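Customer ticket, subject: "Can you confirm the structure for ABCC8 protein?"

Message body: Hello, I'm evaluating your service for our small team and ran a test protein. I'd like someone to confirm that this is what the system normally returns, since I don't have a reference to compare against.
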Amino acid sequence: EEVTESDDEDNLSSVLHQRAKMPWRACGKYLSAAGILLLPLLLLSQLLKHTVMVAIDYCLALWTEHAISVKIEPETKNCSQCMEFDHSPYSKVFSILCCLGIILCLVTSIAVEWTGLKVTKKLHSSLLNKIILAPMRFFETTPLGSILNRFSADCNTIDQHIPATLECLSRSTLLCVSALAVISYVTPMFLIALVPLAIMCYFIQKYFRVASRDLQQLDDSTQLPLLSHFSETVEGLTTIRAFRYEAKFRQKLLEYTDSNNIASLFLTAANRWLEEYIGACVVLIAAVTSITSCLYNKITSGLVGLGLTYALMVSNYLNWMVRNLADMEIQLGAVKRINGLLKTEAENYEGLL
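Agent reply: Thanks for trying us out. I re-ran your input and got the following:
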């Protein structure tokens, strides 16, 4: 019995270790199918877009700081030098950056959708050729529903869900990195606490992804019986009233609702825990370092406000990054399953084609 228990514990630990790992091979297969040109275009457009977004916020911070400094300290200047603040240079730069950001957002969206379309067409064409040239023993050992599922559900996931999740993941990741870069630029003391904070975030997201995926599956699995029971009750309402089973079906509906609410509550609590815990640490460290730098190093209030604004948004960005990472991990299972069928050996046929 002790040997059996130890074997079960080893198997459980290995399963948990496998679930905590990211399917990098499936991710590499998806990105390699995008081609040599589309992948650099996608990365470059994302980097330029978020660089322009940070430049817009920095321009607004400088604009606000200079406008306030002119209005607050007029007595330090002579009467001949007292002039109204000229907003035209800042407005022109702000308008140009906004137009450039809109164009880059459009280019990024087109690049993401184009990448998803090319990957889907390439994987579907390769899968179709493999299935057509597959030997007869493949169809005798593989269920027909499994093959149809690869062409329907998995191709639909690769076609519609993965490009949107990839765009959200890249956007939230770059927003989080840019926010940390802005905070580090405003207050270099933040870099001292960034290393232990990054290590802590790594281990937290490693375990959170497993829990979030399980809770999401639990939420989906408890929602299906609720919807099925509700539709069956509506369709058989006449029969239920004839046999006077209203109380029984009402109690069953309440039980299914409670089960789904419990799973949804735990999922929401886990997401809030991740957002509030890490976000509170980032905001606390950023606020202390910003105020200290403002008091001793004479940093302008506009840059301090910019750093604190990005610190307040880091928690939201980090939460969405981990959520999208968990969704991407689930959706890459479709690429992994299709890649498994692509390894099927073709029929040895030497006749005419």
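A couple of notes from the result: The radius of gyration is 28 Å. Confidence is low (pLDDT under 50) at residues 1-18. Feel free to reply with more questions.
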